[in-house]
Amino acid sequence: MSWRDVFINELRRLFSNPAVVFTVFGGIIIYSLLYPLPYANQLPRELHIAIVDHDQSQQSRTFIRMLDATPQVQVVKQLESETESSPYFASAEIEGVVTIPQHFYRDLLLGKSPVVSVGGDASFFLTYGTIVEGVVATGSTLGAQVKVQRALMHDTPMPLAAQQYAPFSLNAVPVFNPTTGYGDYVVPGVFMLILQQTLLIASGMLGISTGSAHAAQETARNNKSLWARTAVLTGIYCIMAMYYLGASLSLNGVNQMAEPLQLAAVMLPFLLATIGLGSLIGIAIKRAEIITLIVLLSSMPLLFIAGFVWPSSALPTWLNVVAQFAPSTVVIQATLQLNQMGADFHSQLGHLTQLWLQATAYLGLAFYLKGKANRAA
Predict the structure, then answer these.
(1) The predicted structure's pLDDT at residue 185
(2) Which residues neighbour 308 within 8 Å (Cβ) at sequence distance 6 or greater?
(3) Which pLDDT value is given to residue 375?
(4) Cα–Cα–Cα angle for 313, 317, 319, rounded to 5 degrees
(5) Residue 345, number of CB atoms within 10 A of its CB
(6) Model pTM score
C-alpha cells in the first residue's frame, strides 16, 4: 500500500468509528465546557450561617452585623441554642453556626478574650475554612476597635493607639494564583489530563489488532499504519491542545504567561508519548470497551499523583516513581510552570527531556511489537 492509501485508510478508520469520534471531538469539547463550571466562582462566598447569641448585648449585636457584612458569610438565622441548628444543617439551609458566649461584652471591656465558637461540616473543608476565615476576620477587627477605644480613654493619641495595637502591617500578595481559588490552578492541569486520557482511548482503540489477515492488509508487513495513525492523531490533538491552552483558558479567565512556541515544544513530545502508550495498550488489550474502562479508572489516581492537586512530597516514594511513567505528570508540571507561574523555558529542559524519552520508549516499543506481530502473521 502507498503512503497516501495508508493515510486515507487511517482517516477512514478514525471517522468511521463512532466511539473514537465521540471521544476525540465530543469528549474534548464537552469537558472543556462542563469541567470548569463548578470552579466559576473560584471561592465560596456568602455562606449561610446561624447565630446563637447568649450575650444579647450591644457589642454582640455589633459583632453579628460586622460578621454579616463580610464577603465570606451571610447571617440567615438567629437561634436560641446550638441544638436548634441540627435540622437546618440536615436540610442544607445553613452551612455553619456561630455561638457568642455569655459575658461577651463584659470580657471585652475587661481586656479578656471571649471564646466565639464555630460549628460546621468539616467534611467540606473549603466551606468550613471560609466560615472560620470570616469569623476570625470579624473578631480581629472588633478586637482592634475595642483596644483602640480603651487606649483613647487613657488619653493616648489616635495614631499612637493604632500603632500600639498593630506595630506592623501585613501586605499579603498571593503569587501564581491571584484569586486564591481552585479554577486558576486545577483547570489547566486537569485539561492536560483530559487530553492524555482521550488520546489514550483513541490511540488504543485504533491500535487494536483484528486478526492476521487484516493486519497484513493494513500494514503490508511494515509499520506504515502506525506511522500514519501517529501523524493523524498528532495533527488533530495539536489543534485540541491549542484550544485547551488558548481559547478555553481565556474563556474561563485563567492566567496565561507562556509563549505559544514554548507550549508547542512541550506538547509535541507529550502527544507522541501518549500515542505510543495508547498503541501499546491497543496491542495488549483486544477489546475496545476494556481499554475505555481501564483509562477512565486510571484518571483519578493519575490526577492525585501528578503533584498539583496533592503535593508530591506528601506521596510515598514508590508512587512518585510510578507517576514519572505517565506523560500527564510531566506535562502538567511543565505547562503549569510555564503558563501559570511564568517560568523560564530553560528551567523546563528536564521535563522536556523526560517527555522525549517517554515518546521514544513508548513509540519504539509499539513499533517493535507491531512489527513482531506482523511477522508472526
Answers:
(1) 77
(2) 185, 186, 189, 332, 333, 336
(3) 60
(4) 95
(5) 17
(6) 0.79
Place of cell 471560609: 130
Looking at 173-259, list the stretches that DSSP marks H as alpha helix, in order from N- to C-terminal side. 183-206, 212-219, 224-242, 249-251
- Residue whose entry in the numeric block shows the C-alpha cell 462566598: 45
Buried b (16+ CB within 10 A) or exposed e, 312-337: eeebeeeeeeebeebbbbbbbbbbbb
Q: Quick one: angle between helices 224-242 and 212-219, nearest 10?
A: 70
Q: Residue 197: name the closest of 123, 58, 301, 69 by CA.
A: 301
Mean pLDDT by 10 residues, the chain (377 residues): 84 92 93 84 85 92 93 92 88 91 86 86 81 89 72 64 57 73 83 96 83 46 79 96 92 87 96 96 91 94 91 91 96 94 93 97 91 63
Residue indicated by cell numbers 458569610: 73
Q: Exposure of 140 by Cβ count < 10 A (0-12 exposed, 13-18 middle, 19+ buried)?
A: exposed
pLDDT at site 256: 87
Sequence-separated (6 or more) residues with CB below 8 Å from residue 87: none
Q: Name the grid cell of 233.
A: 492523531
**Amino acid letter for position 229:** R
Instruction: Report how far apart, in Å, the C-alpha atoms of 374 and of each of 212, 249, 371 are.
Output: 7, 43, 5
pLDDT at residue number 129: 87
Q: Quote the cell numbers at residue 95.
A: 452551612
Q: To the nearest 10°, report the CA torsion of 360, 364, 367, 368.
A: 180
